[in-house]
Amino acid sequence: MIQSAAFQFDNEIPWQDVGNGICRKIFGYDDKIMLVKAKFEKGAVGELHKHPHVQVTYVESGVFEMNIDGVKKIIRQGDGYYVAPNLMHGCVCLEPGVLIDVFTPHREDFLK
């Protein structure tokens, strides 16, 4: 079983530049769950994509145009969304911000 350390401290986790104005930090995880913090610059685009993971996201800050299965909504600080497995989704960052993502099972591709 893979897993993170019991505690994660934001100031000790480096940002990973994933390109196009988006960076992420990986927090706690095991085989079943993963918490990820994603920082977006204004205008950054989370391209439409799908994956076999369930995703639940909380908007820590910023404003985003979120597209889930062709439905677009503006989401802001304090809002959230749910994405079922294999559903197309993506976003455009309208004001710089941070999304807190939870995936189940964990995103193996993020650990490589």
Layout of helices and strands:
Blueprint: E1 16-19, E2 22-29, E3 34-40, E4 45-49, E5 54-68, E6 71-76, E7 80-83, E8 89-104
Antiparallel strand pairs: 1-2, 2-3, 3-8, 4-8, 5-6, 5-7, 5-8
Relevant terms:
mainly beta; 8-stranded antiparallel β-sheet; 8 strands; Jelly Rolls; 112 residues
- The domain tally reads 1
DSSP strand count = 8
The end-to-end span amounts to: 16 Å
Instruction: Give the second-level CATH assignment, the architecture.
Output: Sandwich
- Backbone structural class: mainly beta
Overall mean pLDDT stands at: 97
CATH class: Mainly Beta
Largest sheet: 8 strands, antiparallel
Rg from alpha-carbon coordinates = 13 Å
Q: Give the SSE order as H and E letters.
A: EEEEEEEE
Supply the CATH superfamily name.
Jelly Rolls
Count of helix runs: 0
Q: Work out the strand percent.
A: over 45%
Q: In which range does the helix fraction lie?
A: under 10%
Briefly note the CATH topology name: Jelly Rolls
Any low-confidence stretches, pLDDT <50, length ≥5? none
Approximate shape? globular
Please sum up the structure shown.
This protein is mainly beta. 0% of the residues lie in helices and 58% in strands.
How would you describe this protein?
The model has no long low-confidence stretch (mean pLDDT 97). The chain is an all-beta fold. The relative contact order is 0.27. Strands 1, 2, 3, 4, 5, 6, 7 and 8 form an eight-stranded antiparallel β-sheet that branches. It starts with 15 loop residues before the first strand and ends in an 8-residue tail after the last strand. It has strands at 16-19, 22-29, 34-40, 45-49, 54-68, 71-76, 80-83, 89-104. It has one domain (17-107): Jelly Rolls (Sandwich), CATH 2.60.120.
